[in-house]
Amino acid sequence: MTAVRLEGVRKSFGVNEVLRGIDLAVDDHEVVCLIGASGSGKSTLLRCVNLLEPLDAGRILLGSEEITRRGVDVNAVRRRIGIVFQAYNLFPHMNVLRNVTLAPRDVLGLSRAEAEARARELLARFGLESRRDEYPDRLSGGQQQRVAIVRALAMQPELMLLDEVTSALDPELVAEVLSVIRELAEGGMTMLIATHEMSFARDIAKRVCFLDAGLILEEGAPEQIFTRPREPRTQQFLERIIAAGRL
Amino acid sequence: MAREGDRRPDPEVARRSRLLEGLRLEGEGARGVAIALLSSLVFAVVIVVAVTQSAGWPEVRRTFFDWGDISSSFPDIARAFVLNVKIFLVCEVFILVLALVVAVLRSLPGPVFFPLRALAVIYADLARGVPTILVIALLGFGAPALQLTGVPSSRVFWAGVGLILIYSGYVAEVYRAGIESVHPSQEAAARSLGLSRFQALRRVILPQAIRRVIPPLLNDFIGLQKDTALVGTLGVIEAFNQSQIDSNATFTYGAYLAAAVLFVAITIPLARLTDWLIARDRRRRQAAGGFA
Fold first, then answer.
1. C-alpha span between B144 and A4 (Å, rounded)
2. Residue B103: which residues within 8 A CB-CB, separation 6 or more?
3. How many other CB atoms sit within 10 Å of the CB of residue B109?
4. Per the CB < 8 Å rule, is B193 touching A138?
5. What residues of chain B, 200 to 229, have a C-beta less than 8 Å from chain A?
6. What number of other Cβ atoms are within 10 A of residue B235's Cβ?
7. Which of A26, A142, A217, B131 is the most exposed place for a label (fewest CB within 10 A)?
8. Is B198 exposed, middle or buried (0-12, 13-18, 19+ CB in 10 A)?
């Protein structure tokens, strides 16, 4: 079954065409990584899937439902899709537990006890139980990002979008966040991941898509993309990554 | 990542500097305090000598600083001042609500809401453009003549309406500045969890925005407290009008001084509270490593 399907998705900001016709399908329980240089359109693609950006052309289906049609209930769609941002975007005026229980209570209508039980379980699973009364500015970047992941998971989404979730972290904090994502993948979570962590993408992805100038230039199994890229642009990109010591 | 705990200063030092912050004496120690005291004393002596040596001083002292006049009019004025405080407190509640509505209307996105945004802009421009005393006169003298059913026709009521309308214009701008200071990524995060625009506003944007604008809000409170004296121009007996009556009876101005003391007794603590909150806010931002 297809979890999400993008067909001919186009998006411009002013004269700058960021997505120039994206076709992509992610199956249930599949992990797909998007790689490519900054500005290639990875983040915009994820924001389009979550309806944070309206499309200029094309359509997106979540399961069998077209979510880009007119009159769709965007809040109902977003309930089914979790997104985690590069800059965490935790709510600074709420402690960890409140960050995680806000949407389950206000959007799903869970009682406080139900929402907190769900939050406690998730926080415990990711080693954050002792942090539940802290405010975000008292947490390390890695802890904040793990809380952001838990906040998204508390809505029990059918699809998770991860937008360069380790790019703002100090190098020594990257591993703790990646291990959380790895655990999600092992648990069968469907994920679309934009990342600069090539070895992680190689390790976790079932499929890797190389984005270049708003198009998926090449896609395939990680082994093929990273060792035998067909496109010269992909080769170039990977050579630069290797030169930078990131693969 | 800067951790707040690592750079928290010695609490005793922090407490002292907090007390002195408003007077800009922090970190200068006992020597600084001594110099400040001495220079203040010299300054005061110079002023006092200059004023008391002036040609008109005996006359001014008689008309303004007659202790008998001040103390005898004080009880009357204090009683009238209760009305100022009442107007202040009641108006403030309505201002905080009305201004928030205006600010939220003004920050609605998209072309659909253009008429509401335009109205909010026009309102804020008018409210801040027309002199307060004019609005109070217009409403206080004009509106009761309408004899609207179910609406009080007292001048105090309509003067209060005038103050609410004027001050909501200012306070709405303060709220708006706060709303705009919350990074758009906060709304994106809230909406991405499925919260509606209204839920995001109520739970995520406004709590952060209002926290940031409490000091400027208090500033406007101070202005409102002073402007309650304008209600006196309608013939209502509040502190200013009462002091005018007393002054006319004695042909001295001590009564005005008594009224001024009453106003200052409320506005100065408010001003110090505002300073303290601003300083606390600044410390918090610094403690958060510039992230906030």
1. 65
2. B120, B172, B173, B175, B176, B179
3. 9
4. no
5. 203-204, 207-208, 211
6. 10
7. B131
8. exposed
Predicted structure pTM score: 0.81
Q: Do B208 and A92 touch (CB under 8 A)?
A: yes
Pairing of strands A16-27, A2-13: antiparallel
Residues from chain A contacting residue B4 (CB–CB below 8 Å): 137-138
DSSP β-ladder status, A57-62 and A65-66: antiparallel
Alpha-carbon span B181 to A142, nearest angstrom: 26
Query: Please, how many CA atoms are within 13 Å of residue A52, restricted to the half-sphere of its CB?
Result: 26
Handedness of CA B186, B190, B193, B194 (dihedral sign): negative
Q: Tens of pLDDT along chain B (292 residues)?
A: 444 444 444 555 555 555 555 555 555 678 889 999 999 999 999 999 998 888 888 888 888 887 887 888 888 888 989 999 999 999 999 999 999 999 999 988 888 999 999 999 999 999 999 999 999 999 988 888 887 888 888 888 999 999 999 999 999 999 999 999 999 999 999 999 999 999 999 999 999 999 889 889 988 999 999 999 999 888 888 888 888 888 888 888 888 888 899 999 988 898 898 888 888 877 776 665 444 3
